[in-house]
């Protein structure tokens, strides 16, 4: 998908005024949260999350851990929006704070040869981790603090440039790069995927962009794009996937909206007209 096709889709989405609909942003966020946690194994649906978030109703047959995972991610997005409004610069402490919220009720303390740390407090990992059984190892935990510091400096420099000289396409590129780079560093023992998607949306929200989401149905393609980018040491494969995913999701909403408008017009035409005698 080329740059102009993406910009055209975004322009049509904006023209139709989705974000002006009542509670649209709230339900869009609920969808982002539901798909993000689903990628990590949650089976909560958007309706179940809506009832949990708005009315405090527990989902029947769903574990407490699943529900807490979704509640914590919602709280992390709310804290992220507070930071966005203040244009809080990236820092290790800022990332650790968000991670502590993401993992508040599902994190745990670890005691390792490298020391003791607690994922529910946003502590950086003090142990090496791999990408699943038989997968490649992420970077040595001793390298994480410096790499995370470098990451924050890069994000701040690029954010400032794009806040001064906005370019929608480049702003999305930055958000996708942040997603890839953070999950590649893998700073925490758990919650890296949720955090990376949160930081992607954090940057998009700061720029006033339509936030992107990764659908649970596209999990395999998403992981393949992450792996390809890491193996090629290039952001391009992941950027390409995310631009396609975002445009595809927005186009689906556009198509659904147009279909509902056509159905509504059809219903109006079928209504019997009243004839009045003079």
From TrEMBL:
Q: Which SUPFAM superfamilies match?
A: Fic-like (SSF140931)
**Residues covered by the Fido domain:** 90-244
Q: What residues does ATP bind to? A: 190-197
Marked site positions, Important for autoinhibition of adenylyltransferase activity: 40
Signal peptide from the UniProt entry: none
Record-linked InterPro entries: Fido (IPR003812), Fido-like_dom_sf (IPR036597), Fido_containing (IPR040198)
Q: What are the catalytic residues?
A: 186
UniProt keyword annotations, A-Z:
ATP-binding, Nucleotide-binding
Per UniProt, what is one GO molecular function of this protein?
Answer: ATP binding
**Per the record's keyword annotation, is Nucleotide-binding included, yes or no?**
yes
Protein's name in the database: Fic/DOC family protein
């Amino acid at each position: 998908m080329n740059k102009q096709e993406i910009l055209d889709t975004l322009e049509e989405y904006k023209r139709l005024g989705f974000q002006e609909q009542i509670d649209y942003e709230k339900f869009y966020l609920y969808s982002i949260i539901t798909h993000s946690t689903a990628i990590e194994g949650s089976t909560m649906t958007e309706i179940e999350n809506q009832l949990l978030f708005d009315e405090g109703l527990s989902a029947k047959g769903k574990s407490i851990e699943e529900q807490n995972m979704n509640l914590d991610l919602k709280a992390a997005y709310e804290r992220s929006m507070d930071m966005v409004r203040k244009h809080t610069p990236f820092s290790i402490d800022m990332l650790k704070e968000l991670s502590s919220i993401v993992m508040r009720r599902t994190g745990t303390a670890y005691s390792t040869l490298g020391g003791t740390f607690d994922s529910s407090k946003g502590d950086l990992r003090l142990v090496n981790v791999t990408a699943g059984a038989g997968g490649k190892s992420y970077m040595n935990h001793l390298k994480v603090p410096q790499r995370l510091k470098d990451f924050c400096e890069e994000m701040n420099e690029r954010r400032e440039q794009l806040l001064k000289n906005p370019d929608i396409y480049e702003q999305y590129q930055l958000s996708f790069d942040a997603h890839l780079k953070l999950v590649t560093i893998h700073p925490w023992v758990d919650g890296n995927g949720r955090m990376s998607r949160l930081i992607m949306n954090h940057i998009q929200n700061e720029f006033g962009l339509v936030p992107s989401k990764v659908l649970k149905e596209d999990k395999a393609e998403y992981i393949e794009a992450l792996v390809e980018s890491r193996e090629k040491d290039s952001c391009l494969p992941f950027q390409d996937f995310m631009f396609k995913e975002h445009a595809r999701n927005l186009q689906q909403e556009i198509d659904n909206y147009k279909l509902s408008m056509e159905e509504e017009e059809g219903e109006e035409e079928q209504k019997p007209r009243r004839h009045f005698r003079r």
